[in-house]
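Support request from a user on the community tier.

User writes: "When I paste my structure tokens into the form, the page sometimes reloads and wipes my input. The last time it worked, I copied everything first. Here is what I submitted, just in case something in the input itself triggers the reload:"
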């Protein structure tokens, strides 16, 4: 058993270091960010153009990416077998989106929000999926897509809400904030007209915030896609003959990508603009600041360690706990595979999601910090990802994971 385990660990390390999928993801990230950096430093790109690029991503690219992610087949057997992955994903992101803030309580609110989201939400789609596919084969893609369901829900809903929220007077004490709020409110008796205008403005602001949240194209496409994905389980809904549309199986009439194949191509092309545009914008943000200072920032290094070391450790522990409980409840029958364990940990150990960085830039929420964190954590992941492969290979060889 020890010899087999040692062989598995050795093979995992060698395959990781030999994998072009692994190195391509890392090199592409650095090169495209560097391209944005150099073009801005040479004044070929203007520093203020980053917001224009991000606007395109937010309105066009990300909604397409959100919808595209859910346009995939589903069966009850797959849903049952991957149910524990789904459960782990929801628990993990629920814990991290709210709990990761504990790592950053000493910072201002805007910094807390940005670092929390960067720690909780990784680049699972572009950075994570190519790596796990190379490491664990095509069979790992089902698990990766299941894990991305709660990821996308949290990323495009709570992630957006938190990153778009503005904090006024974040450096003030609670009493000082309350005093300023009271001074800003006109006296109802002495100034009824001013008070009425204040209330009207407050209602308009609230309605605007609700509109920004619930009419956000990313969020709308996320829930539309989730609806299409889940309804494929309804008996008899897969009634459209697949052969005339080039599909090997019948499919749901809601699968617009199969019903009209050009839609799939359109979504694919439009969604593809997200990563390059966001990374160019990151490079532009880096060019606006001090690159050496970013590497010397204790905050950036601290958050990077939280991202590529602590966050994967948390999901590793959570997965083992869920697997152990299920193992005992199912009569010593494994509920999760070693591949599932590897996919969850490796995808979590990737740098922050480019979507979070786009939020930071779009809503002016510490964009420089988010960009610097992405660069440093990307460099760190070159070291940590092979180590995580060794760890999950060793733990995956235990009876808990079959």
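"...and here is what came back when it finally went through:"
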């Amino acid at each position: 058993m020890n010899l087999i385990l040692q062989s598995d660990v050795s093979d995992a390390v060698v395959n990781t270091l030999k994998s072009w999928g692994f190195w391509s993801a890392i090199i592409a990230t650095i090169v495209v960010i560097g391209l944005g950096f150099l073009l801005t430093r040479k004044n070929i790109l203007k520093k203020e153009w980053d917001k224009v690029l991000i606007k395109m991503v937010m309105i066009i690219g990300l909604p397409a990416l959100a919808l595209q992610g859910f346009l995939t087949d589903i069966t009850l057997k797959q849903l049952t077998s991957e149910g524990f992955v789904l459960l782990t994903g929801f628990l993990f992101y629920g814990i991290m989106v709210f709990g990761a803030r504990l790592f950053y309580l000493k910072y201002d609110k805007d910094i807390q929000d940005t670092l929390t989201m960067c720690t909780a939400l990784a680049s699972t789609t572009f950075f994570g999926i190519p790596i796990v596919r190379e490491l664990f084969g095509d069979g790992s893609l089902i698990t990766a897509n299941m894990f991305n369901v709660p990821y996308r829900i949290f990323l495009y809903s709570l992630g957006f809400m938190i990153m778009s929220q503005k904090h006024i007077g974040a450096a003030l004490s609670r009493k000082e904030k309350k005093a300023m709020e009271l001074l800003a409110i006109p006296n109802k008796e002495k100034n009824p007209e001013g008070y009425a205008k204040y209330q009207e403005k407050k209602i308009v602001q609230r309605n605007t915030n609700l509109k920004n949240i619930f009419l956000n194209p990313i969020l709308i496409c996320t829930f539309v896609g989730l609806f299409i994905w889940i309804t494929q389980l309804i008996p008899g809904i897969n009634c459209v003959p697949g052969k005339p549309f080039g599909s090997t199986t019948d499919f749901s009439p809601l699968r617009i990508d199969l019903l009209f194949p050009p839609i799939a191509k359109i979504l694919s092309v439009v969604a593809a603009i997200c990563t390059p545009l966001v990374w160019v914008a990151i490079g532009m943000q880096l060019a606006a600041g001090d690159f050496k200072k970013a590497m010397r920032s204790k905050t950036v290094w601290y958050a990077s360690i939280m991202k590529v070391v602590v966050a994967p450790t948390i999901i590793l522990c959570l997965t083992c706990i869920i697997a152990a409980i299920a193992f005992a409840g199912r009569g010593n029958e494994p509920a999760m595979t070693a591949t599932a364990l590897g996919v969850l940990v490796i995808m979590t150990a990737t740098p922050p999601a480019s979507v979070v960085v786009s939020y930071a830039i779009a809503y002016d929420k510490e964009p420089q910090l988010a960009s610097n964190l992405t660069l440093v954590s990307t460099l760190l992941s070159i070291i940590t990802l092979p180590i995580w492969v060794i760890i999950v290979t060793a733990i995956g060889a235990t009876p808990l994971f079959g």
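Agent notes: The reload is a front-end session timeout and is unrelated to the input. Residues 298-329 form the longest helix (32 residues). The chain has one domain: 2-168+261-401. Escalated to web team.
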